[in-house]
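Section 5.1 Outputs to date
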Amino acid sequence: MIRTDSWFPKSLLVLPAALALLGGLAPSAAAQANRAVFEAGGNHLVLHALDEDLIHFEFGAGQAPDAAPAASIMVLKRDYPGAKSFARTANGVQTADVAVSVAAATLCFTLTDRARDTELTTICPADATKDEKGLTLTPNRIRNVYGLGEEFVTPGEMNGDWVGRERKPGVEYGNRMIGFHGGMVGNAMFPIMYAVGDAGINYALFVDNTYAQRWDFRTAPWSMRTRGELRGYVMTGPNLPDLRRDYMELVGAPPVPPRKAFGLWVSEFGFENWYELETKLATLREHRFPVDGFVLDLQWFGGIITGADISPMGSLSWDLKRFPDPAGYIARLRTEQGLGVIPIEEPYISKALAEHDTLAARGFMPRLGENGAPVYLTANPWWGKGSMMDFTNDAGSTFWHDWKRQPLVEAGVTGHWTDLGEPEIYDSTAWYHGVVPGRHAHADVHNVFNMKWSQSVFDGYRRHGVRRRPLILSRSGISGIQRYGVAMWSGDIGANAASLATHMNAQMHMSMSGMDYFGSNIGGFHRGSIQGDSLTELYTQWFAAGALLDVPVRVHAENLCNCKETAPDRVGHRASNLANLRLRYSLTPYYYALAHRARLFAEPLVAPLVYHYQDDAAVRELGDEKLIGQDLLVAAVAQHGQQQRDVYLPRGTWYDFHTNARHEGGQWVRNVPLYRDSLFRLPLYARAGAIIPRMHVDEQSMNVLGKRLDGSTRDALVARVYPHAAESQFVLYEDDGETIAYQDGAVATTTLSQRSAPGRVTVVVGAREGTYDGAPAQRDNVIELVAGDARVGSVRVNGTALAQHPSREAFERAGSGWYDAGNGVVIARSGTRPVGQVKTFEFRTSAAGRIGRGGK
């Protein structure tokens, strides 16, 4: 039967005529809008139209409760107004965008996209009354599936979606580190899948269940197996960007990271003392590498004693012999070098520590039964033996932050490295405080453990009124963790090309799963026997990829022998590493604007090509090509001895970022060289119409904030423009880069636009809107126009001709003007002007050439 709530007045619910309207299915007397309940065979299905294109569903045994849609900790938004056009049909419900029809005998429901009059899938419950249960989905016209979090599937395989594959959880409970090709990599559950067919057919399914899930896309019907509730959300829309926005609205978009998160962070396992850090920094400065900080592994609190109750693990206090005066040292690093420090934090506490006794007395650790002693973890005592924090206990999380973490915040750390958060080691019989009333087993909390840990950092900053934004580095998570400012990395990955390649495939799905800030241990954590030229080549390829795709750019490796290097001036091809890192730093304003857009509009920072070009069959399974925003396309490399690679360009016109050569899309560019002027550079292309804000980076550059070795200031607004006949624009977002003031509106936006016509390219730097603490009142404006083989004869700003200079040196000495930089690029500068003034650059070009024309 169907139970209905607000289709007609309650007084009609008892009338036989009303039952006839529903084909003999009797409604209930419950009263909640946009809700319908179907019952069959002692089971029920609840449908709730939260929006025109968003349907919540829940299967269960017995009679359905009269309640609002249930939701797990993953879900943030719970105040949907309901679909305005909601209506009930004889066998289901519909809105303006969606129709759902229910099979009375089985409670299977078929989802139809009304705009396309297309049946998308039929979703059925499987073993809904058993402990292990699931869903089945008919593929219908769907060809590709994306999302579902992080899993490394096939060594060496960059490409591939989930169709034809099985998405397996880690053993036992889900999130887990998994042995993979010489390393240990993450398996993290983000239960969002995107299904894509031809002709604009697509939908998304978010299974709101935090237990381990196994998805099988090898044969029809597709299936998902889990335990716990069978509930979730189905979303429809015109394309993947629309679906991802709906998903991110549901689980929460990421805040803007501190600007320093977009720079290089040097890490290893691990720095023994401040002196070792200083030696790494000294050569980085000597070789003119910009850098933004160092990440400290467990040596900062004294290291570990394997198999011992008295191990320092869990003290979370500085080892003052090796790291004296931490607050003073961190302050000097910040003011003198422009550097930050991120220390590691693990959830484990050695039994003999006083911290263990304090937490045990307060009941803030997992216990053997509700009133039992803390669990005693001995199975893998590499860190020592003892217990762990129960981060599902909010009171315990508050106490721990105030006692142990807040002093680190006050000492000036930039962020927190929450390691081992799957959690790595646990007692499966333990009792936890829990996140759902009545559920206290390890299985109930395993996959949300790292999320609750991250939330404790986020909430701790708020509670103490800390204005700085934290950067949280985690190797595990679940849908929703991103809203606490988390950047994830793929675990203790092996140092080999096959693992780097598979990381690219994992990144593809993590981007679709809502994790915008995702990276790797650049160069590989477990190096094994790789050394010499093989290591040099691998690290160089990996660093080039990380410099364009990772946030933060973090190099890391196991180095307990003090015989390995991670810093890019010490391993790999130094000149290539330097060139690729400077490219990343120069693009900081572009990445940072994308970070604001990720928060405001749920746009991914780095996306697979299918995200923007889902109607192009050639990109459906490409994981080795990425889009940074919408305007930059990068092709990754992970193969020994590779000198060139083919690159597919989607429809439109594209420019080679390195040579400015022009290419028409919808086809492959063959044999793109990977070495240019003896430097390894990944293929990088800019879309015609792209406006890429940049910052000036040279041998004096120290960090992403613009600090310079010679104390000079280079804060001009720089934009590289790739002209196109269709007008285009890019909004530059700027703030103080460090505090949460941007959340209160302390943000400056500048709209940059271009339009091209025969004989003329016009670039407009709009008047800045808004401001923030430290924002310049005046600044220079520099436009780098990629003019191709068109000859620029003159440049005007607001109608006044700029002087042409014969060389870069003359241009740099002058306060304004323009010059031909060669390689099809003309660079013009307005001179220092008020930021509230519109600056219109007009480039007059010869009729003989064509803007953007630069060869194949």
